[in-house]
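Write out this protein's structure.
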Amino acid sequence: MKDMRILVTGVKGQLGYDCVRELSERGYHNVRGIDIEDLDITNEEAVLQFMEEYQPCVVMHNAAWTAVDKAEELPEKVYEVNALGTKYIAEACKIVHAKLVYISTDYVFDGTGTEPFEVDDTRGGLSVYGKTKAQGEDFVTSILQQYFIVRISWVFGRNGNNFVKTMLRLAENGKTELNVVCDQVGSVTYTYDLSKLLCDMIETEKYGVYHATNEGIISWYDFAVEIFKQKEINMKVNPITTEEYLKLVPQQAKRPLNSRMSKKSLLDQGFTLLPDWKDALKRYLKELK
């Protein structure tokens, strides 16, 4: 088991980094983390050749176009990465008989209502990012049977940029007052915690679609307030609506107002839920030190 070959795409990102770290902590010694300079996932031939040479048993596919606003300007490029890139990975997985973990997003939903989205609810992404990630899901489900599709939201981790780092940077740069959106509601995902769940998953054959975030439902405003509270930073945080925010910062991709996602499929399959979000934030801030 511990000598099975595992391929992790997007290793320079927040989640890819933590997946490789968690796998090595568990004693997997045949793990290969790759990023764009190692393999262009939009090149079908290159993907197949790479996979046939490496012969992974598991592929943890984290690589994606995640710059949500920039995606609106480059829809074709984003489709190539998020949809076609995933298709080529999935087709190669089928050929080499590898399990696939595909990381998806709350953005595949339209964000209406106040109820948590179930895994099989109708998707209706509002943005290029959301739509192309849903198309990636469709390729996975049509090509493979051995797959885990895991939708996450509001990600933060050690590598790369995220909301927590942005808030702390603004405080460091002398900001004493901030406006933060209060009507977009959902859950955060600490990649350290998520990587543990993903590694649990690949050790099973409990294939399917899952939602995985830290426990607790909050707004971005709530999140910001808690960050400054835990860091003991004196910052005035003003709650504003998405509509008000768009007047201040136009030209943005549409974000879902409701990013609540049901964890029923995780519980049904006996997986452990991720810890509470405040606890996750506390550990993360300690790690950033």
